[in-house]
Amino acid sequence: MPVAWDEFRLVRAVAERGALAPAAAHLGINPSTAFRRLAAIEEELGARLFERHRSGYVPTPAGEAMAAAAARMEEEVARFDREVAGRALTPSGLLRVTAAATLVTDLLMPMLGRFRARYPKVQLELVVSEEALNLSRRDADVALRATRDPPPNLVGRRLATIAWAVYGPVRGETESAAWVSPSEAVAGGLFSRFVAERAGPERVALRINTVQGLCEAISEGIGIGPLPCYRGDRIAALRRLSGPEPELAGSLWLLTHPDLRQAARVRAFMDHVAAEVVPLRPALEGRHEEKQEERREE
């Protein structure tokens, strides 16, 4: 009897995660169910797929071959899904969008509301993630990302520059203030190196492994630190302590897989978001304070 596709997925999940519990969680099944299914697969094939060790499950050559076959099958299924999605004539169906938490709360959510009002036949699934999801596997259809180097296998549009500056509280001493900083895990350590060049380790009061929470930490007086200008300029309790820092500037990209760029719902969404970002560029690019200065001079 041929082995079912779900069994290939189970073997691949165990091989990638090295244990039954995380593999079962990934597939949305009970660990005991995963154990019974794996035993049944091995019995049916007449081959051992994993060596069981205290440290976890290690695939045998047969297990490695089955996991590799599952990966190829998954890629073919994803390619078929992309091809079918690309042939849709009108904006309808499910659209998966991914973005980091700060982009969702500060930029994307109002855009999603207006998009749904315009295209009610499109159902949206929002995946909030700091990590870059695999658009080739259809983990998402469209990604809104702040990055300097978008993946070469994706296509899309550069929407704006994202400027960063140093911010602190409106009141209070800033010359000898403590700092808050993104950790080394954020943007390859770009921000932590920036802070380290301006403050010794003893002056860093708080490190955060995401951009989310930086604004709140500075607002609470924990320390001064870098923020994207479109966030920092909106907070009445904060003030800029520097101009936009060129070494921290990034780009806002809207990306999709090449097979999906002509899909009606993807094309409609990308056109919609690109148009919505145009009036936001001054704030994203840190030109908000320049406009205030111009108004004062007038």
TrEMBL record:
Gene3D superfamilies: Periplasmic binding protein-like II, Winged helix-like DNA-binding domain superfamily/Winged helix DNA-binding domain. Belongs to the LysR transcriptional regulatory family. Residues 1-60 form the HTH lysR-type domain. It comes from Methylorubrum zatmanii. Signal peptide: none annotated. This is LysR family transcriptional regulator. Pfam families: HTH_1, LysR_substrate. InterPro entries: LysR-type_TF_proteobact-type, LysR_HTH_N, LysR_subst-bd, WH-like_DNA-bd_sf, WH_DNA-bd_sf. Keywords: DNA-binding, Transcription, Transcription regulation.
